[in-house]
Specification:
The protein is an alpha/beta fold. The chain has 8 helices and 8 strands. It is elongated and about 55 Å long.
C-alpha cells in the first residue's frame, strides 16, 4: 500500500519513468559536481519522485539522469518536484535525504517510513529546506528524537498530515510541539508510540478536536 502523496498518481515500479525522455549521463558532466552528486545518491537508492504537471512518479535515478543530461531540466525541475517516497529502508542515509531536499525546495509530501538510518539530521534538513511541506511520514524511524519533530513543527506551518508511529524515542514533547505550532494539521498517526502518555493525547484532543488521531499499527 502506497502512502497517498498524490491521490491521482499511479506509482510505477522502481526505476520506471513516464513523461520525460531520459538518457544516461555522460562522463563529461563530471565537471558538474552537484548534478553528479544527485545522480550518485539516486543511483544507490531507488526512490520515486513526483513532478508537478507530469501527473505521475519518476524513478529518482531516471530524474537524476535527465537533469544531468539537460540544462533546461536542471533549471526547471527543482521548482517542479513535489513529492519523495519509496526509499530503501537500509540504504537511504541522511546524506541521501539532505541532498534531495536541498535540490527540491518546493516539496510538499515526503515519505521516509521504515528507515533504520534516518536520524534527526535528515528531518531537520527537511524542516529547514521544505517550508511548503504538507505531509510527512516517518513511521518506524526509531532514531528520531523530539528535536526533529519540533523542528518540523517550528518551520513547516502548512503541515497537514504527520505519521510518527512507532518512533520509539519520541516523547510527549514532540506531540506538544505539534499541538502548539501546526495550525493546519488534519491527521496525526501515533501508533505504537511507546513514550506517549494518555495525558498528552487528552490535551491534544481537547485543543485540536478536528484532527484525526490514529493509534493503531500502520
Amino acid at each position: 500500500v502506497m502512502w497517498p502523496c498524490a491521490p491521482s498518481a499511479r506509482v510505477p515500479p522502481r526505476g520506471v519513468h513516464r513523461g520525460l525522455p531520459v538518457r544516461e549521463p555522460q562522463r563529461s558532466v563530471t565537471s558538474q559536481p552537484s548534478t553528479m552528486n544527485l545522480f550518485a545518491l539516486a543511483h544507490h537508492d531507488g526512490g520515486n519522485i513526483l513532478v508537478d504537471g507530469v501527473g505521475t512518479f519518476l524513478g529518482a535515478r531516471d530524474l537524476a539522469g535527465a537533469m544531468a543530461a539537460c540544462r533546461t531540466l536542471r533549471q526547471v525541475l527543482p521548482d517542479a518536484v513535489r513529492a519523495l517516497e519509496g526509499f530503501s529502508r537500509r540504504t537511504t542515509t541522511d546524506d541521501v535525504i539532505i541532498g534531495l531536499v536541498q535540490r527540491f525546495p518546493r516539496l510538499r509530501c515526503i515519505d521516509l517510513r521504515d528507515g533504520d538510518k534516518r536520524t534527526d539530521a535528515a528531518i531537520t534538513a527537511v524542516a529547514d529546506k521544505c517550508p511548503h511541506l504538507a505531509e510527512l511520514n516517518v513511521w518506524h524511524c526509531g532514531n528520531l528524537t523530539d528535536a526533529a519533530i519540533t523542528a518540523v513543527a517550528d518551520k513547516c506551518p502548512l503541515l497537514a498530515s504527520l505519521n510518527v508511529g512507532d518512533c520509539g524515542n519520541l516523547t510527549d514533547a514532540a506531540i506538544t510541539a505539534v499541538t502548539d505550532k501546526c495550525p493546519h494539521l488534519a491527521s496525526l498517526n501515533v501508533g505504537c508510540y511507546c513514550h506517549l502518555t494518555d495525558a498528552a493525547i487528552e490535551t491534544f484532543e481537547e485543543r485540536r478536536p478536528g484532527v484525526r488521531i490514529h493509534r493503531g499499527y500502520s
